[in-house]
């Protein structure tokens, strides 16, 4: 961890109608840091991720990425999106494209890379997530765990400065969770900046530098995993942990 801030949210507020989903959220993520966000369903974790990527506009406050304020639209926004990869619960692969094509598409279409170069890099990313042998198959021919690993390779293909994960293993059969978490753990060890919403407390304990606990749109507490799991301070966090551990 270098300590230099890459993602900074200051006093961020967001409403859905009367619902105050993000309440005065302050969060700073350093380059190379792995922040795991946990909290009950409906607490605003997905909205937080979507706000960082500007998939969701905020009502007040500011979000900066790598020293720049989040652009509202246009080419600057497209560039920002390519710098912040996102991996969702549902893998969102293109069903009618092969695994290799799924990974090459963004680099060629958005980044303007030459197909030959993009193909070579896509293959090495598929290698990295342990799926190179499936390159010519279609998503439906792969297991959920394999598809999610492809989705991670696809996000990496854009050479992002940070990756956001929103419950990346929640849709998977239990026996496939480990293979996806292993890939994420290896990215974390390699110094990728990551914000990970997950219910996988093992991952939080072993891979996170910091755990952030959210409830009702607020960042209720944040601490190192060791400190948070041994000694949660708020009643909300104690209650949450007592239900899931
Ligand atoms: P989490 O990911 O922690 O489960 P979300 O960020 O998805 O929470 O949702 C936070 C709250 O905002 C929930 O009450 C949810 O129902 C509500 N919400 C999320 N998206 C929308 C939307 N597009 N319109 C209205 N309400 C929404
Ligand atoms: Mg969610």
Overview in brief:
The chain is of the alpha/beta class. The chain has helices at 45-52, 74-83, 99-109, 115-128, 144-157, 174-189, 201-207, 225-230, 235-244; strands at residues 5-16, 19-30, 34-38, 60-65, 68-69, 84-87, 162-166, 193-197, 210-215, 218-223.
What this model shows, in words?
- Its EC number is 7.4.2.1.
- Helix 3 packs parallel to helix 5 (about 145-155), helix 4 (about 115-130) crosses helix 5 and helix 5 (about 145-155) packs parallel to helix 6 (about 175-190).
- With about 240 residues, the chain is an alpha/beta fold.
- The chain is about 40% helix and about 25% strand.
- The model has no long low-confidence stretch (mean pLDDT about 95).
- The protein contains 9 helices and 10 strands.
- It has one domain (about 5-245): P-loop containing nucleotide triphosphate hydrolases (Rossmann fold, 3-Layer(aba) Sandwich).
- Adenosine-5'-diphosphate (ADP) binds near residues 21, 39, 43 and 44.
What keyword list fits this structure?
about 240 residues; alpha/beta; Rossmann fold; 6-stranded mixed sheet; 9 helices; binds adenosine-5'-diphosphate; binds magnesium ion; ATP-binding; transport; MetN_ABC_transporter-like; amino-acid transport; AAA+_ATPase
The count of DSSP E runs of length 2 or more, i.e. the number of strands, is 10
CATH superfamily: P-loop containing nucleotide triphosphate hydrolases
The assigned CATH architecture is 3-Layer(aba) Sandwich
H/E series, N to C? EEEHEEHEHHHEHEHEEHH
Q: Give the overall form.
A: globular
Bound molecules: adenosine-5'-diphosphate, magnesium ion
Which spans of ≥5 residues are poorly predicted at pLDDT below 50? none
The chain-level structural class is alpha/beta
Cα(first) to Cα(last) distance is 28 Å
The residue fraction in helices comes out at 25-40%
Overall pLDDT confidence: 94
**Describe the biggest sheet?**
6 strands, mixed
Number of helices: 9
Sheet with most strands: strand arrangement: 6-7-8-3-9-10
- Rg, nearest Å: 18 Å
GO cellular component, one term: plasma membrane
GO molecular function: ATP binding; ATP hydrolysis activity; ATPase-coupled polar amino acid-transporter activity
Pfam families: ABC_tran
Keywords: Amino-acid transport, ATP-binding, Cell membrane, Membrane, Nucleotide-binding, Transport
């Amino acid at each position: 961890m270098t300590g230099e801030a890459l993602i900074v949210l200051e006093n961020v507020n967001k409403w859905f109608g009367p619902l105050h989903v993000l309440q005065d959220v302050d969060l700073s993520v350093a380059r190379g840091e792995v922040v795991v966000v946990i909290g009950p369903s409906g607490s605003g974790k997905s909205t937080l991720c979507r706000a960082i990527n500007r998939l969701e506009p905020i009502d007040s406050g500011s979000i900066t990425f790598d020293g720049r304020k989040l652009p509202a639209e246009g080419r600057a926004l497209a560039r920002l999106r390519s710098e912040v990869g996102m991996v969702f619960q549902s893998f969102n692969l293109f069903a009618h494209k092969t695994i290799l094509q799924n990974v090459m598409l963004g680099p060629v279409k958005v980044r303007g890379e030459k197909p030959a170069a993009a193909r070579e890099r896509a293959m090495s990313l598929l290698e990295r997530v342990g799926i190179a042998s499936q390159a010519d198959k279609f998503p439906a021919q792969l297991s959920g765990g394999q598809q999610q690993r492809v989705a991670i390779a696809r996000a990496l293909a854009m050479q992002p400065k940070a990756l956001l994960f929103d419950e990346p293993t929640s849709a998977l059969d239990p026996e496939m969770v480990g293979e996806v978490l292993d890939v994420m753990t290896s990215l974390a060890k390699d110094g990728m900046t990551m914000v990970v919403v997950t219910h996988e407390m093992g991952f939080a304990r072993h891979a996170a530098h910091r755990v952030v606990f959210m409830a009702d749109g607020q960042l209720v507490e944040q601490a190192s995993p060791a400190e948070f799991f041994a000694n949660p301070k708020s009643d909300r966090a104690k209650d949450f942990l007592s239900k899931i551990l």
